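To whoever picks this up:

The nightly regression suite flagged Acyl carrier protein as changed. Nothing in the input moved, so I suspect the structure step. Input below, exactly as stored in the fixture:
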Amino acid sequence: MDIAEKTRLLAEMLEVDAAEVTAETPLDAYPTWDSMAVLSLIALLEEHFGRADVDGTQIRHMKIVADVFKVMEK
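Regenerated output under the current build:
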C-alpha cells in the first residue's frame, strides 16, 4: 500500500481532509484524536495491515503521523 492510500485511510479515520494529514503533524493537533480514535486506529491496523499486535499503550506513545505510518509498514 502506498503512502497516499495510508494517508487516505488515516484521514478518513480522523474525519479530516487527506491534505491535512502530513507525516510531521502531531496527532493531538486533530480534534478527533481521542480514545475513540485510538480504538479506531487499532481496528484499522488490524483490518488493513494485519497488525493485531498493536494496543492502546503503543498507540499512546505515537506522537506524530509518521509514527502511525511506521507501524503500517511493519
